[in-house]
Each structure stands twice: as C-alpha cells, then as structure tokens.
Input
Amino acid sequence: MNKFVTIVLLLLAFQGNGQPPGGPRPPKPEEQLKMATEKMNKELKLNASQQQKVKAAYGDFFKEMEKMHQKNHPPQDGPPPPPTEAEKAARKKLAASRDAKVKAALTADQFKKYQELEKTMQPPKRQGPPPGKPQL
Output
C-alpha cells in the first residue's frame, strides 16, 4: 500500500513538468541571420564583398520582420494567430526588397542558386489545426 501511494505521488509530482504551452519559439533575428548567412556563404561561395551585402540585406529583413511581428502580435501564451492578408503582403514586400538587394550583390549564376536555396531555408508550412486545438 505504501509503495502504491508513493508511486501515485511521484506520478502526480512529475505530471506538471511537461513542456511549456505554445511549443518551441522561433529563433531570434540574430540567430536567423547567422544561420542564413552561413548557409549562403557555404552554398554560394560568396566573396567578402558579397558576404557583407548579403548579410546587410538579411539583417535588415530580419529586423523589420521582428518589428512587424512585435507590432502585430504582442507576447502571449500559446501559438501566435495566423497572419492576416495585410501581414502576408507586407512580408512579401520585405522579401522582394531583400531579394533585390541580394540580386544586386550576386552574379546571375549565384542568384539562380540562391533562389533554389531560399526555398529550402523557409520554414515548412504547418498543416492541420494549431497545436492545442481539438480537431473537429
């Protein structure tokens, strides 16, 4: 009987130590910049001048994305709400501006490789209901 009570108490004690709500958080802009530039330097074999220009373009992009995210989605528990059409349009505009800056820094061959690489660097699209929501 004592063993049973001890086991039940231990199970109850560990029950509350699961993952925090909302799942994993996205990387910070500095981390995103580092990962993106390292991958592009490796894959596209950029020279020093190109590295600076690409890093500047991506740095501006990630900072603006972070500002837009903080403005539209104040900190909260759980996953953020899906983006509105206006937010999607603003993101596309920022990405187009970034790509124009990158295109100016790269050769035509490098830019073609960049476009293919860019598709692999985007996070995968979630499918199904958001985490924590029951599926009907």
Q: What stands out?
A: DSSP finds five helices and no strands in the chain. The mean pLDDT is 81. The two ends are 42 Å apart (CA to CA).
